[in-house]
Amino acid sequence: MIIGLDVDDVLLSLMDRWLHEYNEAYDDNLQKHDINAWDTWKFTKPECGKRIYNLLRPEMYDSIEPEPSAAAFVQNIRDRGHTPRYVTACGDPKKLQLHRRFATAKWNALIRHGIAEYGELLLPGKDKSRAPVDMLIDDRAHNCTGFRNGMAVLFTQPWNEWLQDEGKYAHIERADTFTEALALIDYYDD
């Protein structure tokens, strides 16, 4: 199978780095567990609001950390004979230079942390539900509910816990850990 792996907050800890930047800039103490919906700006101080998105910069990926065990998880996918593809949003594709800078920064972070290997593919795109993969593992509920190529695995984060009735979406499973995600890959591979 071709396994589509979301980069931000599945393989790399974007939210931790992003909130660090926000808390320093706005003298706040917002934590990852405080964000219980996709629209992060709704949890910021009023003087910040949607300006939080201005804090997202390609340079953040120079100091971003991997999610614990992300490299081992991807290696387990390879060891099972599957092909990992890294699917990620890279900003507005109409702003081509910035889009390319985000894609390059994310790819370099994946390589630096031993998650991706040269020769594998990064698939930048705004709508990951259309990714050409057999299984999608993502933390955004919208990407999973819209995915129609195969099985979607919603990787649990505080901002997607509101989606409780995965049963109404027959193609979505939830994984709280990489171990659970691997078990789902094994189950659907049979």
CATH topology value of the largest domain: Rossmann fold
Gyration radius over CA: 16 Å
Overall structural domain count: 2
Shape: globular
- The averaged pLDDT comes out at 93
Please tell me the CATH architecture of the largest domain by its name.
3-Layer(aba) Sandwich
Question: Helical amount among residues, as a percent range?
Answer: 25-40%
Question: Separation of termini?
Answer: 11 Å
List the uncertain runs: none
Q: By CATH's scheme, which homologous superfamily of the largest domain applies?
A: HAD superfamily/HAD-like
Question: Helix and strand string, N-terminal first?
Answer: EHHEHEEHEEH
Beta-strand percent range = 5-15%
Number of helices: 5
Q: Sheet with the most strands?
A: 6 strands, parallel
Oligomer: single chain
Strand segment tally: 6
What would a concise description of this structure say?
With about 190 residues, the chain is an alpha/beta fold. It has five helices and six strands, in the order βααβαββαββα.
Describe this protein's structure.
With 190 residues, this protein is of the alpha/beta class. It folds into two domains: 2-13 and 65-189, Rossmann fold (3-Layer(aba) Sandwich); 17-58, no CATH class. The chain is built from five helices and six strands; from the N terminus they run βααβαββαββα. The chain has helices at 14-26, 70-79, 96-112, 141-146, 178-189; strands spanning 2-6, 83-88, 121-124, 135-138, 151-155, 172-175. The chain has a six-stranded parallel beta sheet. α2 runs parallel beside α5 (178-189).
